[in-house]
Design brief:
With 357 residues, this protein is mainly alpha-helical. The chain has 14 helices and 3 strands. Helix 2 crosses helix 5.
């Protein structure tokens, strides 16, 4: 819009030789700042000042909101919590982002991070190797790249950055290996070894690992179960899955019998289903340590984690039914491509197929 001429208006930027005149358009001419105090200006440092002159910014000297990398990471974590991401997912994302802060060696302004600097970070040893010096697997590197893309996409969408410096990051092709699973013999040996012991801790562990092998629920869902989440009448348990999505999981006859005997000593429906020795809700790390202990006792030498029991359930379910959509629903996957890893035949199956040719 045109503004009226005022004798108190002048362009003080030395890079411009224009003189103010009536009807000149914004931003070359501004009204008297005393009359419009809400207008913010960033004066050119080399401009002359006087009582009757207004210092205007040089063309292109636009003030940008600055934010430190540490502050940006905290705000991103807040957004992850608002999106319902699990504590494990948040911890993984933040660990990858703190690698960037460690590589920069100081708390830099996010506006100084460019595609070229991110490319150098992606080829640095701190990114491509673990803390022990071992090269990272391709799938781990791709996960870290995904964290960077999500982080800078958030900063761009929130208006903290004008352009996304991670827009050029691409994931590397990675061959998907079949997930590590327990054989039927190993799974039976694990449960049989625990069942031999009659202590309350052994009974708790037997039910925990029976549930993991019989339902395929995640570790986080297991430790967050309450007594009231179990419905023996309908043969289901209510869990909060990934992304805080609530869903029902079916129980087979054997699991219902185990739960019926276990719940006889648990009256309060708000109590945690599985307690530690200190009568508190059992933690994820405790479950991992108990599994390692019982696997050693059972003589199972393969390297496996609690998540291996979920893979074991899914693999057996697919082998029994051959229905990938059914396995997808049982695991609570949102995309069928995530479930497709269970369709890969193992080496023994592939060898048998070749023998039949």
């Amino acid at each position: 819009p045109r503004v009226p001429h005022s004798p108190h208006i002048a362009h003080s930027c030395p890079t411009s030789s224009r003189k103010p005149h009536t009807g000149q358009l914004w931003p070359h001419v501004l009204p008297n700042p005393a009359a419009f105090p809400f207008i913010l200006r960033e004066p050119c440092r080399s401009a002359r000042t006087s009582q009757n002159r207004v210092d205007l910014p040089c063309p292109g000297s636009v003030h940008r909101h600055s934010m430190k990398l540490s502050t940006a990471i905290r705000r991103f974590d807040c957004q992850l919590r608002a999106d319902g991401k699990s504590p494990h997912t948040r911890a993984v994302y933040l660990r990858d982002l703190r690698l960037l802060a460690k590589w920069r060696r100081r708390d830099v302004n996010i506006s100084t991070i460019t595609p070229a600097k991110l490319a150098r970070f992606l080829t640095s040893r701190i990114f491509t190797h673990t803390a022990s010096g071992k090269p990272k697997a391709t799938i781990s590197i791709n996960r870290s790249k995904s964290a960077l893309r999500s982080f800078f996409r958030f900063l761009t969408d929130a208006g903290h950055l004008n352009a996304n410096p991670a827009r050029l990051i691409r994931s590397a092709p990675a061959s998907q290996r079949p997930p590590r699973v327990l054989t039927h013999k190993e799974a039976r040996a694990l449960l049989a070894t625990i069942k031999k012991h009659r202590t309350p801790i052994a009974k708790r562990d037997h039910l925990m690992f029976s549930l993991l092998l019989g339902t395929g629920i995640r570790l986080a869902s297991l430790v967050n179960l309450n007594v009231g989440d179990v419905d023996l009448g309908s043969g289901t348990i209510r869990i909060n899955g990934k992304g805080n999505v609530e869903r029902l999981v079916f129980l087979n006859r054997r699991l219902k019998q185990l739960l019926k005997g276990y719940l006889a000593s648990h009256a309060d429906t708000s109590d945690p289903l599985f307690l530690s020795l200190r009568t508190r809700r059992i933690g994820a790390r405790q479950v991992e340590l108990r599994l390692a202990y019982w696997l050693e006792q059972a003589g199972v030498t393969c390297r496996c984690s609690v998540h291996t029991l979920r893979h074991t359930f899914a693999t057996r379910l697919y082998q029994k039914t051959g229905d990938l959509l059914l396995v997808k629903r049982a695991l609570g996957h949102s995309r069928i491509t995530t479930t497709e890893i269970y369709t890969h035949p193992c080496d023994a199956t592939l060898k048998q197929a070749f023998q039949k040719l």
